[in-house]
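Friendly challenge for the regulars: who can give me the structure tokens for this chain first? No prize, just bragging rights.
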Amino acid sequence: MMYLILSVLTNAAIYWLFKYFERIGAKIFETIVFNYLVAFSCGIFFVPNVSEAFHSALQLPIWSVAGFIMGGLFISVFYFMAITAKKSGIALATLSSKMSLVLAVILLAFLGKGEINILKAIALLIAMFGLYLFSTDGRSKFDRSALIYPIVLMLGSTSVDFSIAYFQSFTTNQNELSLFTCMPFMGAGMIGISILAYKMIFKKESFPLKEMGTGTLLGLVNYGSIYFLVELYHSGWMPESTILPVNNLLVLVAGSIGAVFLFKEKLNRRKIQGLFICVLALILLL
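First reply, four minutes later:
Bragging rights claimed.
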């Protein structure tokens, strides 16, 4: 239970931080890069035996290869998450990323990592309806141009959710699991540092000092979000196929409510109805 609560709070806090960074004028990409360096440093600190873990990883098992490749996916999704929060608000950014729960659950079931029974199928359909209500106001005209960031964010988040849920099961001990948790951060950090170095050397951009601070704060929260989610999968507290939809729907509710109190984002009647329907779906999934 504790891992679920901490996973929800840290995931929701990521969206709140992006909104805060926008208000203080912090650069998004630079903040994300430093965030991954800090998250990787946190991850290495929690690996019981670093040399043994890296020895296992250098044998190139599937979890090691997937963990490193996920780095590119992480930095891309994080960037689109920040842009969506900036352009469309925290609520829609949270919604777009958490819509991935439906696609990821179906993919996991297809690969034998869970099953979709009648009750779960009904709960997912209810969740989709709640998410639909939450994402539309019933009055605005359909704007295709506004959909690009939420759609990319949804597909990217699906890939991240699926990858974490699927590949963590290939680790064989706590050493490997701990290293897998931070390997995507290492890959993302290496990509980000390369881009920053290029910008500073060839485009003569100054060193992003402010973003070291914002990135450090984000990195601590970001590492926690992945660490608690992976530990939740291994805790055995609930079926793996149930964790993803429950966690994502709770993050949507917590992120939206937090946005109202912290940043005065407005939730109209339709969005509130959508949230209540999502809570109903949660009850059916538990």
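The chain has a mean pLDDT of 82. The longest helix spans residues 174-202. Your move, everyone else.
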